[in-house]
Amino acid sequence: MNHMLENAVIAALFLLCFIIPAVIVAKRAARKKNNLLQQALESAAAEHQLKISRIEAIGNRMLGWDEQQQTLLYLDTLQEPVIVLPLKPAYSCALSEEKRNGAVFEVTLQITDQRGRLLEQLLFFKKFQDNEMKLTVMTEQVKSWVAFINQQQAAQQAA
Predict the structure, then answer these.
(1) Can you give the pTM of this predicted structure?
(2) Which among 25, 65, 70, 77 could disulfide-bond with 54, CB atoms 3.0 to 4.6 Å apart, if both were Cys?
(3) What domain of life is recorded for the organism (predicted)?
(4) In the Cβ-directed half-sphere of 133, how many Cα atoms lie within 13 Å?
């Protein structure tokens, strides 16, 4: 009985000394990274005289939307400049998943013109480069943005 109690105390001390601080440090680092991404995206928006009405981090990338100018901003941590995409009334947006042998290799947001020509392809997941544990969450976030952008497009055409 004493051995079980000693083992429980040792396990609790291990958690307190190593695991919990590691989790706290990891969360702070992620928050700091997201803040830096957001600042970079907001400064790019200011350079182009845009006002971001919606912003979201998706993995190592960040998307922003200016509703008045109908402009999408995209920032990838591996790609230095912010991509600024003024979306004209004639466009559509779709999610694309590239699969090989049943495994997802890439998830991209594709923007096409009214003729179906690809205008831009924004990468959100690349196998061996991004965390595969977050693939489902990232895919859902991109789907949300696809629906949002297509809704904005429909509203713009109706106006």
Answers:
(1) 0.77
(2) 65
(3) Bacteria
(4) 0
- Our CA dihedral for 34, 71, 158, 148, rounded to 10 degrees, sits at -20
Structural domain of 101: 2-158
**How many domains does the chain fold into?**
1
Six token digits for residue 36: 């830096």
Under 8 Å between Cβ of 85 and 74: yes
pLDDT in tens, 48-66: 999 999 999 888 889 999 9
| Rounded CA separation 48/5 (Å) | 63
Q: What is the C-alpha separation between 155 and 123, in angstroms, rounded?
A: 26
Residue 55: partners with Cβ closer than 8 Å, 6 or more residues away:
38, 41, 42, 62, 63, 64, 65
Cα–Cα distance, 18 to 116 (Å, whole number): 53
